[in-house]
Each structure stands twice: as C-alpha cells, then as structure tokens.
Amino acid sequence: MKRQPNFLWIMLSILLLTLNQFAQGAISKNKNKLLHTVKVVYFYPADKKLSSDWKNRLDRTLKDISSYYKTELGNSGFKSDGISFETDDSGYRYHLVQGAKSSNDYTINSGREIENEIFEKLAPAINPNTEHILVINALSHKDENGTYIFHSPYYGKGSASSGLCMVADCDLLDPALLTDASTKITFTEMFATNKACTVGEFNSWYLGGIAHEMGHLFGLPHDHGFPNEFNSKTISLMGEYGSRHYKDEKWGGLKSAKFSKASVFQLSSHPIFTQRPKPIQQKNEFLLQSFKLFQAENTTKLKLQYRAGTVPYGVVALIHPYNTSEYLSNSFTAVVNQSNSVEIDIAPFEGNIPYEIRMLFLFHNGSVKEYRKMVSHSNEGDFLTINNFGQATVNDLIRVVENDSLDNQKQAKLSVLNQLLQDDQPINLKTIKKDSIFLSDAAWEEAYVGWENPARNYYTAESNALFFLENSAKVYRKGLYAHAPSLYKYKLAKKWRQLKIIAALRDGAQKPEGIQFIIRGNGKILSSHNVKPNEQHLFDLDITGVDDLELLTQDQSGNNFNAWSMWCNPYLIK
User: Fold this and answer.
1) Sign of CA dihedral 19, 20, 25, 30
2) 3-state class of 202 per DSSP?
C-alpha cells in the first residue's frame, strides 16, 4: 500500500495550527495562568485509607502521561507542553472523594454511580458540562493468592468542550517501575484473567490505559492508523491492544504505542493543547450535502461536499468492515483547501462486504462534526449506501424519498432537499432590496442550539427520520431548527416592519410541559408563548425600529431532553 500522499500537507497544517496556537494563547501564558486544565479526581471507597505515597506516585504518573503526549505531538510537528493538569501551590491538585460504599460494592459497571457521588460532593468546584476530568479509582485489592483484582469502571468520553474518563489505580502503578523486567505480578481485570507478567509490562498496560482513555476524554475515536503507518515495533495507541504497549521499550517489549497521524491531526486543535476558548455551545452551521465514493487512478476516493458557516481545516475518515471491531478502523486524512468540498484517498474495498465509514470534520476551535455511513462495494464496482444508517446526507436522502411511493409529503421534501443542494449564500438583511423574505434564508449574527448544530430549512441531520421540519404531519419548507436552549440573532438595520413566524414542536416530541418561545427586539421581550406538543402559535409582530432581533427557546423542565422546538415559516416584511 502506498504511503498516504497528503501527509506533508497535514504536517504543514499542524505547523500552522501551532503558530496560531501561540498567537492566541500568549495572553494566558504570559499571565502564568492557563485557560483550561484537566481536573483530577481521586476516588477511594469507604473502607479504604489513602496510602502514604499515593500523591508522589500519582504525580509521577501525571507527569509521565503529559510528557508522552508532548513527545507524540512534537514528533508530528505540533509543539505543546503536553497535558495541562490542574495545579495549586503544592503541585498537581487532586480532588479527593471518598465513596459511600465499601470497595466490594463497586464494580466495573459502577461508573454512573461514581460520577454521581463525585459531582454531588464537588459541585460547584467541578462542572462536568464544561470541564475535562480524569477520575482515578482506588478500586483494586489482592486476593488470598496475591493476585491483584481490578474492579474499577474503565472508559473515556469527551469532546473539545468537556469530557470524563475513569481509570484504575493500585500501589504498583508507577512509571518509575516501567523498567522493572524481573518482578512478577498476576492480575485479573475485565479483559484478562490471571494475567502473569512483569511489573514493567503491567505498567505498560495500565499507564497505557490512562493515555488511551484520556484520548477519548479529548474526543479521539478508536483508530488503527493509516495502512502500513505502523511497523513491527510500533502500534496505534487508539487501536486494538495499543493501550497495552505504552513505552514497552522501557522493559524490553517488542513494540510501543504511538499516536496515529489522524489522532495528532485532531488533537492539534483541542483547547487543552491550544489554550483557545472551548466551544461550549453548538454554534457552527454544517450540512453534508453529498457523500460519494468512486474509483480513480487505481485508488478509491471519497468526495464530500458540504455547506458550512465555518470551514473545517481537515477531515478524518475511519473505515472498517462492519462485522469487525472499530478498534481496527483504518484512518485517512485530508487537509481542506476548498470552502465547500474535499477529496480523501482511501484504501480499496472488498466486494459485497458492508463497511462503516466515520467522517470527522475538524474545526480550529477543536470542535468536531461527525457523520457515519454504511456502504457496500459490489463486484461490478458500484458503491451502494445502505439506507437509514447514521446521519442524513442530502444526496442519499433524495434517493430515499424518490423511492417512497407512499409518502404524501414527497414533493415538499424533494423541494427542500434540492434547495439544500444549492450553495446559495445567506441573504444580507441590510442590503437586500426585496420587500419580503423568509428569515431562514438570511444571514444571522449569532446562533446556537442545545443539540447538534444550528440549521436553516431543515430540522437536523442526526438521522433521516428527523431531517425535516415536520408538525402535524406537514413538512415546512422554510424554518429554523431550534432545539432548546437556542438563540438566533439577526441585525435588521431598522429596515423591516413586520415579522410573522410559527412556533412549534417537531412531531414526536415527548415534552408535555412544552417549550417557551421568546422574541426579543433591541433587548426587550416583544412576545413569548409556551408551546406544547401538537400545538402551534403564530407570532404576528410589529418590529418597526428593531435593529437587534432575537429568537429564543427555553426548556421548562430543567433538562433539554426531547426539547424539539422549531420556528416555521419565519417571514419578514418591509
């Protein structure tokens, strides 16, 4: 397999991100205060006491993991200081939480329970919605045979905005022991029973586990690397068994874990490493219009066409046969050098086997927009996208709708989809000469929604089933996706006289208490109304003299689950 041709472009892109990082992060670093750090929680059960050396040992662990990230990123051209853990005057800061139960009452499935205990005790000092948090659990013991038994939850989840991972601790977890190739240990955990090895190899497993789960904390997916990216002495940290080979060279192991180019490409924009503001709210408008696979010059190409409020700097495609583990996903990368499309060279597909493709669009603020598709490649050379898997793309949805002879909203849907295939720029409300316009066709000043991304003239690309603006079985061709809490803000330049707009919840919303719809003009509430499922409310407002127009939705229940609000037929008149 030939080497991926755009690695040089990726390295140059990472270098540019590095330069931009230092320019934007200079203020915080000059003040010796970081914008973002990873908070560390040490959780131990009710029947255990902290050992005398726990802090020194964990200090070495955090320092080693941070140094590993610094080295791996640096080897690909991205200069960083590694992971910025929270500190105080004594060094690394640990938030200690003693559990309510004894050790034996916690299992590998106790993650949610432990999270609840932690956040109940540490609120408001730690906010899981805005922080990146490493939880180290002292949930292990020795049985009568001297075997270490680990029963800690072990996982990682996260994004550029926030994240949490849980890992396990014991008295032998220490990077200082990575070189110990003689002392023996036997341990049992969720993926191994009575595993016998040296203390050095054990630390490769468990320090590697921390490095791997922290990758998920930062939003990294499982990734086996580009074909032939790794040799007999290296393995992808985020791929299958990669976490078991952390610094294997220290104790004489045969291979050592490294980050793939795709992992570095994604990490290079993460706020923990760039110290830029976190993208807390979903603000970027993004729609994948076309997804196409084709053969060209003895290779397979994936061409993606999209509409974006902010253009991504790159794309990662992760591909694996659907009947195999996602740990074995091969990664392919491309730097975006056009505003609305990108092509990625990928490996050939075997015939008549379904493949899952994950596409990660990477943005400079660290946010990631993900699409999943399932495709098969026939022996005749045709690619077929399998319906109703993953997120909606416009070109595939057109095919689905055209083939549905029973859909009485077919023409309305096709009208929406064909319009979304166009690359029309949003209309400038200050300069347009028309006497009336649909507000959903206009450029907004600011927008955010409580789930997914702001969207005009469709609901959400989360799935085919939820794509259209539907209320009372009718498809609206014009409108705004407004999953609460949401805001759309427009500059009207005091040129418009009347606003007509329908507030509604999308069909299928399970929100009996309803959603509050609010319209503000120049900072003052012009009108508001609570709308419940299967209802509508028409706002017909005089907006003479309004410069700043804001459309807001607020959930009434204290959480935004199923808060499927939307604005339909938003019409401005001069």
Assistant:
1) positive
2) helix
Bridge partners (DSSP) of residue 357 are 319, 373
Q: Specify which residues 6 forms β-bridges with.
A: none
Q: Which two tokens stand for residue 408?
A: 């009485």
481 vs 12, 285, 414, 456, CA distance in Å?
A: 37, 11, 18, 7
Q: What is the pTM of this model?
A: 0.91
Q: Are residues 87 and 218 in the same domain?
A: yes
Q: Is the peptide bond before 485 cis (omega within 30 degrees of 0)?
A: yes
Going by pLDDT thresholds of 50, 70 and 90, the confidence category of residue 351 is confident
- Omega of the bond prior to 221 within 30 degrees of 0, cis? no
Convert the pLDDT of each residue in 193-229 to its tens digit.
999 999 999 999 999 999 999 999 999 999 999 999 9
Residue 550 lies in a domain: yes
CA 496, 502, 504: angle at the middle one, nearest 5? 145
- For the segment 79-93, the average pLDDT, to the nearest whole number, is 95
Question: Of all helices (H) and strands (E), which one includes residue 499?
Answer: strand 498-505
Please indicate, yes or no, whether residues 375 and 443 belong to a single structural domain of this protein. Answer: no
- Both 109 and 48 in one domain: the answer is yes
- Asked if 97 and 121 touch (Cβ cutoff 8 Å), the reply is yes
Within its chain, how far is the Cα of 390 from the centroid? 15
